[in-house]
Every structure is written in structure tokens, then in C-alpha cells.
């Protein structure tokens, strides 16, 4: 039996308005709950119509040879035809062979009863529920059996070919109904499986989208908070070390710490504000307005994402924490797409943060960004000189495993590029990134980049 309820079938939804269809749907529902009950009712019905031919008398006993055999033999065959039907869905093939054998024996004796209807029932049953590879054997067994009926039982024996034709048509119709039920059941099962598969795929897409969003937010927060905290900690350590020697620098250090903290807090608010969805509201008059939770609740002012033009300010901020930082840019980096500029900015920011964390405030860092039109790529390189000899390692800025290099590789991969990091000859550390320039569309002009990657932009050499 199909496990698909009629509620998922558009045909039954359309016919549900009719009284006959409603009754049939109730019968189907009851059959799904208690299939043995319907099978037992069918078996009882077949038994009663067979016994009626034996004990009611009438023309049937004369025409179909009932009087030609003892009554107990006919009664036994009627019972043997009906009782197996109570198990027709539990063992469809077994019931078919039993009923076919009893019908063949009865017809060989020259007797036909209305309980012979059981053969059509088991034919339908086998076509619908039996394994498909057994159906050819079922068809091959039925044909000789109904031939016995056509040639042995009166009055069919008077014109056997005509009788064989009509009985074969009835058997074919029963098998066709069973096959139609099997096909429909398979189609409904396939639709249910497809719906379940689509639901699983939808949930997987939602989980992947949520994971991508978490990774993006994690990268943004790591870049914003990690860099600012590294600069603040470097400034605080340097200020504490020079408090006794140069106390006049204390207010300047505190000012830079406050500015860095405010900038970090502003970026954090903008990032979190961008994550809040703008929810449409429907007032009483039907007008639709859009309110941003980020702007109404937090009051955070939205600003553009950092770009390559902000790299100079980034280097100045790190220079205030101690390291000597130089920055050179080749090509018109400000003409790069905004997404690519953000990737360059975050890669440089993370590399500078790592230099401050691991090499200390007395290292020298060189940042180079080149936009090469011929090679259609942007190259980023950050070198530091490492920790000076004899200087103790800087205090750990946090616990646990860092995610900086992982975030760098993820950002470069999102832009279609690569990142490499490792020690440089002579000491120190090098981070290099290569990001491809996107091909402009047919209606978009190419960015005006310096073809040789040799002319720095105005004010880029810092």
C-alpha cells in the first residue's frame, strides 16, 4: 500500500467536494490504518457468493456443472478460493498460486462458481504488489488455466474460443488495473522522495549560507578588533616602558589609544549594523516603510568600507605603536573594484598586526602594493625585519590558536587569489598575496592602471 496520503494528491483535492469521493477517501484512510480488515471483508464476500451458488439452487447449478460433483467438493473449492484472499497483500505470490491451483482443479472437474472471481482479484494483486520479475511467470500460468475453463465448463465449452477470448480480456483488465496502481504508487513515492530531497537540499543550502556568513563576520571582527587591540596593547606597553624616561609622551600615547579604540568601536558598530536586516513595516494605512534597526537603535553612522586609500592611515596608526613602517603603492590602486580594495586593505592590516604581535614594536616593516595592468593582477607584499637580537619576545596578546593566516587565505580565495607567508632570508617574516583583476564587462572601461606597475600614486610613498 502506498504511504502517501490523499491530501498530497491534487486529483483527490479536486474531487473532495463530491460525496462519492469523500466516502472513498474515508475507505482508503481506514484501509491504511487496518489493511487486514478490508482484505477479510473481500474474502468473506467471495465466500458468500460461492456458497450461494451451492445452496441457493437455481439455474446456475444446471448451467455450470455444479450438480456434476459432490456438494462437499464444491464447498471445499469455494472456501479454498476465498480464505487466501485475507492474506493477499502479505504474500501476494503465494496467494496467487493457491487460488490459481484451486480454480484450475475446479474447472477441470467441469464446475464454475461465482467465487472464481478470486482469480481476477489475485491477478490484480500480483500485478500491483508482486516483484516485477515474477510477472511474466504469472501471465504464463494464467493462460492455460483459463483455457481449461473455456474447454471444460458448460456452456463455455460449446464455443471455447469465444469463451477464452472474453475470459482472457477480463484477466488482462485485472492485471492492467494492478499495473496502473503500481505505476501510480511509484510516481507518488518518487514525488515524495523528491520533495524530501529538495527539503534536505534547502536546509543544507541554508546551513552553508549561515556558515559562510559566520565566516565572513568572523573575518571582519578578527580584522577590526584584532588589529586595533594589537595597536592599543603595543602603545600601552611602550608607554609603560617610557613613562619614567619620557613622561611628556604619556598624553600623546593615551590620545592615540583613545583614537584607535574609537575607530575600532565605530567599525565594529558599522559591521554589526550591516548584519541587521531592514524589516518592512506595514502601518495601519497600508503604506510600507523600511526602518533599519542599526540606525534607529544604535544610531551608528554608516561609512564606506576601508579601501586602498586608507592604507596610509593604517600605517601611521601602526607606526605610532613603535614599528617603523614604510608604504609604497604602484599603479592606480584607487581605481580597483571596491571588493578588491577591501581585500587588499584587510590583507595588509592582518600582516601588520602579525608583525606587531610577533616581531615587537622595534621591527621595521615595509608594505608594497602594486596594480599591474599587463599581468592583470594586484600584488601585495609585507616584509618585517623580525625581532631585534637580544630583545625578549613580546607578551602574548591572547590565548588559543590564531586565525590570522586562515583569514588571509580565505580573503584571497574569495577574490580568486592566493596568499603565501613564511620566514624571509636574513630574518623576519614575509607575507605575499596575488589577487587577479576582474575582467570588465563589454560596457565597462578597464581601470586606468599603470602598465608597468612602476609609477606610484600621488602621496602613496609613506
From TrEMBL:
The chain crosses the membrane at residues 69-87, 94-114, 134-151, 163-181. Residues 188-220 form a coiled coil. Gene3D superfamilies: 1.20.5.1930, Histidine kinase-like ATPase, C-terminal domain. Keywords: ATP-binding, Coiled coil, Kinase, Membrane, Nucleotide-binding, Phosphoprotein, Transferase, Transmembrane, Transmembrane helix, Two-component regulatory system. One of its GO terms (molecular function) is ATP binding. Its EC number is 2.7.13.3. Pfam families: DUF7134, HATPase_c, HisKA_3. InterPro entries: DUF7134 (IPR055558), HATPase_C_sf (IPR036890), HATPase_dom (IPR003594), Sensor_HK_TwoCompSys (IPR050482), Sig_transdc_His_kin_sub3_dim/P (IPR011712). It comes from the Bacteria. It catalyses: ATP + protein L-histidine = ADP + protein N-phospho-L-histidine. SMART domains: HATPase_c (SM00387). Residues 339-439 form the Histidine kinase/HSP90-like ATPase domain. The keyword Nucleotide-binding applies. Residues 382-403, 419-462 are annotated as: Disordered. PANTHER family: NITRATE/NITRITE SENSOR PROTEIN NARX-RELATED, NITRATE_NITRITE SENSOR PROTEIN NARQ. This is histidine kinase.
